[in-house]
Amino acid sequence: MKVLLSNIQRFSLQDGPGIRTTVFFKGCNLRCPWCSNPENILPYMEKYFDDVGEEKQFGFECSLGDLKEEILRDQVFYQGKGGVTYSGGEALLQVENFISLIKDLSQMKINQCVETSLMIPTKNLTMILPYVDEYIVDVKILNSDECKKIQGDLQIYLENLRILRAHKKEFTYRFPIVTGYTYTKQNIDALLELLKSYPPVKMEIFNIHNLAEKKYQMLGRRAFNNKELPDEILRNLQLKIENMGIEASIIKYA
Amino acid sequence: MQKMKTIIKGTILFQYVHHYIWCFKRYMRVQNREYGNWQFIFRYLRNAHIFMGKNKYRKLFSSVTLEELDSKKYKHFYYSIDPFKTIKKVNRMFGNLTIDYSFILNYSLNEMLSMDTECDRREVLQALVGYSKRISKKISDSQVLNKNIFQTYFEQICVEKAKGFAEALQRILFINQCIWQCGHRLIGLGRLDALLYPFYVKDKEEGKLDDATAEMLLKEFLALLHEYYWFKGDVLSGDTGQIIVLGGSDTKGNYLYNELTVLFIKIIGDLMLPDPKILLRVNKNIPKEIIELSLNTIEKGLGEPLFANDDVIVKKLINYGYSIDDALNYVTSACWEPFIEGKSSEQNNAGSINYLLPLQKLLIKENLTLINSADELEQKYLFYLEKYVLEVLNALEKCKYQKAPILSAFIRRKNQEDISNNGAIYSDYGLTTVGLSNVVNSILNINKIVFQEQKYTLQELEKYRRKNFINNERLCLMLKDMAKWWGHDDGAALKVANQIISKANEVILDYSKAIEKGIKIGLSSPDYITAGKRCDASYDGRKKKEPLGVHISASCSIAYTELINFAASLNTERVNINGNVVDMMINPLIIKNNREKFVDFIILAIQRGFYEMQMNVVASTTLIDAKNNPAKYPDLIVRVWGFSAYYNELPEEYKDVLIKRALQNEGVA
Ligand code: SF4
Q1: Which domain holds residue A142?
Q2: Is the minimum CB–CB distance between A9 and chain B shorter than 8 Å?
Q3: Residue B437 phi, psi (nearest 5)
Q4: pTM reported for the whole predicted model
Q5: CATH (domain of A147)
Q6: What are the Cα distances from residue B283, in Å, to A77, A82, B288, B318, B600?
Q7: Which of B479, B480, B589, B593 to mutate to test the interface with A (most CBs of A within 10 A)?
Q8: What is the total count of domains within chain A?
């Protein structure tokens, strides 16, 4: 069995507890304009030209055997809490192809985490519930109509959240601050409501930097130009969330 | 020819001219200069003296200028070196050593004299007695505060062993200054936390010392060792070899440390001086707090402590031939080359192997059309490597060392001989190696584009290489882009690297048996720039004269865990023990945003089994800005090959290497 990946990043410190290996799956069902991994969106390999003019490609197929070997290379460093994080794109779109690996690693007691938009068929989620330890759930647009603009389905999202909770799974929310999309009065109010009805163990908020500009260029697509908000606004939001008794942090990618 | 050279070197004119140039060059490269250039020249002309012949040590120590006693500088200790007076040098001088300071703590100079019968050592010891009396008189004539205490230290040193913590510190300073004064370089300080601990405990028990005083004393002690910074620097400013080794292990693998270990790390971080520097011995049982504390110091950009992993090193030292007790008592020569405290006269930097040179020779000498696979290329390379290593070793055999009575007096010996005559308990020698990463990347690049993809023939490539890739920039960039094998733990680079290391090991072991003297090599070297200048372009996309790879580091952004895995899988068995440092560039934000995880990483990396590891925590943007606007960054300190230094005092090419590596690490280059 093979999966389509765009990258495997070892010594990943921001995708779950401890030191982790993050596996980036290629292919996503959403179209967030602010996406900072545009090379992960389309579910096939994409050609591009690098600085020297050499033809290269985003995406590679990886057998489960090779993927497992790569994940286990850092096993010593997982001790305690670290492990593997499946991210993307949307990793759970390919779950049928790698569920055997998830089961395998679960038996080996490797901590597994999935970062997901949760706007995926519910069966893809239920399949992994017995084996995956950590869940990082993206929070995006919490209004049904608005959410459709990024091709998302809020109903499925809420249903999946309900299932996570019903299975007593703890989850962390990850919330990108994007002016006009996720950062509107209406959406922040909805977010605070969501925190009440489906409280996470932790909430991470982050600014969207225009770091992916070069990748957009390489792919021949137009980059999204986000107006980055001052730290103060992020801190205010963090405070609001903390006042609800929920641990919140501002993450900075470095 | 050799004889002629020796004669010229021995002339008085040569000695003075050489000494003057030597001093002036060192003085000019530091940023905080006490005197103007002319003032400096005038001082040199007035004070310089090179002592030779009979009684030279007595004459030296009775005439060196003593620093005036300034109460601001000398509150508890006195430390004085006269950089302009020295001993005649004809042959190589012993340096890069750590003496056994316990001699001067546990014995008086007179006792040492009574135990030693060798005349040169006796002359030095007598000279030291006279010197300490001179200093005592100088103190007595001065107006310095606490002068009675000072004076007593210098009187007692002749007649009694050290009694207290402060006195022990003063004695170390005294012997240290005397060794520098005799013209030896790169003087290590040893395991000071272990050495000073009994004095610290005793004084505390007797109510003579509290923690605050101990901290104050150590601060002054370290600040005084930082004095004469320009004079102590060797190849570069900051390269002083003043290394303090902290922590350790016992036979059961327990981690050994004490309050002084903690104090030293803390104070080094507080003082923010590049020198003296600290090396922390670690093992898998090290308490987390010690790593946290070390990370605080490292994070400030000091690049120290360097971590040396006892779990790996001690075993390998025993395997090499040191006794268990001695292996447990290892320190390092100036930077990272392990040897035994106070028992080794080993010159671990006696020579350098440049792995790239035999590859270049092969490419020029061989008929490349007959090489049909990477395997064949590797085999041929190993053949050329053997010949080259033997040439290096033969040249070393011809090196002559000057007698070193002052060092011999403070190093444990197996007989009465001077250390220059193999008197020390261990008198092997060590070589550093450089260029292995360039060879491994070159061979794997050739394998890929010549033998696997068949994009070029080896002859074609060679044509371009010899022309330094002029008019073939694209090819050069492509090679550079491909040359990311070294550092990855997926097997390809490790296989080639370990084959090469094993071959070098084998040749050295055979040679070593034949001459009945141990020889060590290691995978770290200060020569990445100088050796690079002697190399033509290489197949890793490196152009002629460009620097070679630095220690065990990657030339691209690579997960630190992967680099540690890679380093721990390199064959550092047998003689490959002369320092194997993983050298990491780290963006400060990574530590700032993930401190706890970074501490875990260091602890887990120890378990994974790196040999040694050092970190430069600095962003490329800072380094670039500091290169363009030095005045904005007078205090910026960086880690160079195995020492910390002021960034502004480094030659531009060293700054460029750091900038390039920081950019590579951040994934920008
Ligand atoms: S869900 Fe994530 S990967 Fe998919 S488009 Fe949105 S930001 Fe990009």
Answers
A1: 2-250
A2: yes
A3: -60, -35
A4: 0.95
A5: 3.20.20.70
A6: 16, 21, 11, 16, 14
A7: B593
A8: 1
